[in-house]
Write a structure and sequence with these properties.
The protein is an alpha+beta fold. It is built from 11 helices and 16 strands. The strands form 4 sheets. Strands 6, 7, 8, 9, 10, 13, 14, 15 and 16 form a 9-stranded mixed β-sheet that branches. Strands 2-1-5 form a 3-stranded antiparallel β-sheet, with helices on both faces. Strands 3-4 form a two-stranded antiparallel sheet. α4 packs antiparallel against α5 and α7 runs parallel beside α8. The mean pLDDT is about 95.
Length: about 550
C-alpha cells in the first residue's frame, strides 16, 4: 500500500494555504480536515486496533504535492501501534527502534542481561544467607553480652556483700579487685571478638552489594551510551535537503535529546515527505481515544506539537519552508492602547488584551509590563504582582513601589485577594455550581502544559458557578482559590473536572480566534489605605 494517499473527495475547489502550518499554533486547514476524516475512517475500520486506539493515541496528517503537482496526504502515529512501528497505511519512523537486528535491540539485550543479573543477585540465596547470618550474629552478640553483663552484676553483688561483712585480708581485697578488673577486660575482649565475627559477615555482604552497585553503574553507562548512539541514528532532513542527527539538533541546547524524541507524528511525516520528494502543504495532529491518566486529551481534538521533544527538531526540519508565523510569538499591535481600569500613586490596574504576554518571554519582548513601564516611568522596584496567561484577557495589578509590591504579594500568599473569571466552555456543565479539587504538576515533557497528579501535584482548587447554558456552550464564573499555572484551563477541560474545555484553548481543547477566558474582577485591600477594593471590567465575549 502506498504511503501517499489520494483524497477521496474533490479537492480542486479547495484553496491551498499560502504558507505551511506552524505546528505550535494553528487551526487545521480544510485539506488537513479532509485528510483527518479519511484517517479516522481507516482507523475506525481496524477492529484489531480498537482496544489500543481506544486507550489513546496521537495521530497526524501531512498534505503534500507529489512531483506531478497532485495533492495527497501522509498519515502517522506516535510511538508504537500493535507492538510495531511499520504499518502499510502509515509512514515509517525516522529510525526503527523495534528492528530485531538494529542497534537499539542489540544494546537493549545487553542491558536486559545486566538487569536479569542484578535481579538474580538481589533475590539470590547467597544474599539471603548473608542477611540471615548478619541478623543471627547481631542477636548472638546481644545475647552473649547481656548474659556476661548479668554474670558481672551478680559477681559485683557478691563482692559488695563480702566487703560489707568486713574482716577481709589485704590478699582477699586484692582478689576481689582483680576479679572486677578481669571481667571488665573480658567484656572488652568479648566485644572485640564478636564484632570481628560480625565484620567478616558485613565485609562479605558489602562485597556482594558492591558487585550489584558496579553492575548498576555499568548498566547506567551502557544505557546513556546506547541512547546517544541511537539518537545518532535518528537522522532528519529539512526542506533544504540538509541532514542532521538528533544529537546535533539538540547540541545548541547543551543537552541530549529527551527520551522519545523523534518518535512523534510531525517529525515522521516531514522526514518521509522530504525523503520522498513530496512538497508539504499543511499538517495537523489529533488525538484518538481516551485521555491519558493525568493529562488532558479529547477524542478528535487537534493539538500543537510538543515543545520539549519536537520543537528543536521541527525548528530544523522546517528550514526552507515558508511557515506561518507562530501567533503566540507575535507582538500585539503597537497602537493598541493600555486600558487603565484604576490608577493612583501606589498601584495601577490594567485590562490586558488576549494575546499579550504579561511579562517578556524568550521569543517575545513585547508585553504588558514593558508597555506599562513606558507609560508609567515613575513605577520602580518590582512592579509585577501577578500574571495572566498570554491568551487570557482581563485585570492585572502593577505596583509602583517596593512596599506596595510586598503588601500585595502578601495578600496573594495569604489567599485574601479574590479573583473572578468569566469563561465560555465547549460543552454543557450539568451542575449549577461546585468546587473542583485537582492537584497539578508541570508536564516536564511538554511545557507549559500541566497535568493532574494526585500523588505529586500541588493543591489546586477552583469554585465555579454556571451563568448561562447555550446549545453547545456554557458561560461560567470561575473563582480560583489557589493560583497554579493553567489551573482554570485544566480544571475545566480535565475529565475529572468539568470535562468541558474553554473555547479556544489550543493546549487543552480546540483552537479558535482566542481563548475565551477573562479575568473579570479582583478584590483586595489597598496597601496604603487598607480599604477593600473591588475592580471590574466587562468580558469581551
Amino acid at each position: 500500500m502506498s504511503k501517499f494517499h489520494r483524497f477521496e473527495g474533490d479537492v480542486a475547489a479547495v484553496e491551498l494555504p499560502q504558507q505551511f502550518t506552524c505546528p505550535f499554533c494553528y487551526e487545521p486547514h480544510p485539506l488537513a480536515l479532509m485528510a483527518v476524516g479519511q484517517v479516522q475512517h481507516y482507523v475506525a475500520s481496524r477492529a484489531d486496533w480498537a482496544d489500543e486506539m481506544g486507550a489513546g493515541k496521537m495521530l497526524g496528517v501531512l498534505v503534500a504535492k507529489d512531483d506531478q503537482g497532485l495533492l495527497g496526504f501522509l498519515a502517522a502515529f506516535s510511538g508504537n501501534l500493535a507492538g510495531r512501528v511499520l504499518h502499510d497505511y502509515f509512514v515509517p519512523p525516522v529510525y526503527n527502534l523495534l528492528d530485531p537486528q538494529g542497534e537499539f535491540k542489540r544494546g537493549e539485550a545487553q542491558i536486559t542481561a545486566i538487569n536479569h543479573e542484578v535481579e538474580r543477585l538481589e533475590q539470590s540465596t547467597e544474599l539471603l544467607t548473608l542477611q540471615q547470618s548478619e541478623t543471627a550474629m547481631r542477636q548472638k552478640i546481644s545475647d552473649e553480652i547481656e548474659d556476661f553483663k548479668a554474670l558481672m552484676a551478680r559477681h559485683k553483688r557478691e563482692r559488695d556483700q563480702h566487703r560489707i561483712a568486713g574482716n577481709l585480708t589485704a590478699s582477699e581485697q586484692e582478689k576481689l579487685l582483680n576479679q572486677s578488673r578481669f571481667e571488665k577486660a573480658e567484656l572488652k575482649r568479648m566485644r572485640q571478638r564478636l564484632d570481628g565475627q560480625l565484620q567478616e559477615i558485613l565485609d562479605e555482604k558489602d562485597t556482594f552489594y558492591r558487585h550489584i552497585t558496579d553492575l548498576k553503574a555499568r548498566r547506567k553507562a551502557m544505557s546513556e551510551a546506547l541512547q546517544e548512539r541511537i539518537f545518532r541514528l535518528f537522522i532528519v532532513k529539512n526542506a533544504r535537503g540538509e541532514e542532521r542527527d538528533l544529537v546535533e539538533v539538540f547540541k545548541p541546547l547543551g543537552t541530549l535529546p529527551p527520551s522519545g524524541a523523534g518518535e512523534c507524528c510531525a517529525p515522521r511525516l516531514l522526514n518521509y515527505a522530504f525523503n520522498s520528494g513530496l512538497k508539504p502543504v499543511c499538517m495537523a495532529e489529533f488525538w484518538w481515544g481516551a485521555s491519558p491518566v493525568g493529562e488532558v486529551r479529547h477524542h478528535g481534538h487537534f493539538y500543537p506539537a510538543c515543545r520539549s521533544k519536537c520543537k528543536p527538531i521541527l525548528d530544523f526540519m522546517l528550514q526552507g519552508l515558508d511557515v506561518e508565523d507562530n501567533q503566540l510569538e507575535m507582538p500585539t499591535e503597537e497602537d493598541t492602547p493600555l486600558e487603565v481600569v484604576y490608577d493612583d500613586r501606589w498601584l495601577t490596574v490594567l485590562n490586558k488584551p488576549s494575546g499579550m504576554l504579561t511579562v517578556p518571554g524568550k521569543a517575545l519582548e513585547d508585553s504588558l509590563l514593558s508597555r506599562y513601564k513606558a507609560a508609567f516611568p515613575e513605577a520602580h522596584g518590582p512592579v509585577v504582582v501577578h500574571r495572566l496567561d498570554q491568551e487570557t484577557s482581563g485585570l492585572v495589578v502593577f505596583a509602583k513601589d517596593k512596599a506596595t509590591h510586598k503588601a500585595l504579594q502578601q495578600q496573594f500568599e495569604n489567599h485574601t485577594i479574590k479573583k473572578r473569571y468569566i469563561a465560555l466552555l465547549d460543552g454543557q456543565v450539568p451542575q449549577d455550581e461546585g468546587i473542583i479539587d485537582l492537584p497539578l504538576l508541570p508536564d516536564v515533557d511538554d511545557r507549559p502544559r500541566q497535568r493532574v497528579d494526585h500523588a505529586l501535584g500541588k493543591p489546586a482548587v477552583t469554585r465555579y458557578r454556571v451563568l448561562e447554558r447555550m446549545d453547545a456552550w456554557t458561560r461560567i464564573a470561575l473563582e480560583p482559590l489557589t493560583g497554579r499555572t493553567h489551573q482554570l484551563r485544566v480544571h475545566c477541560s480535565h475529565p475529572q473536572g468539568l470535562n468541558c474545555p474553554i473555547v479556544g484553548d489550543r493546549l487543552y481543547g480546540t483552537a479558535s480566534t482566542r481563548l475565551m477566558l477573562h479575568a473579570q474582577s479582583i478584590t483586595f485591600s489597598h496597601p496604603a489605605s487598607g480599604q477593600s477594593m473591588t475592580l471590574e471590567c466587562d468580558s469581551p465575549f
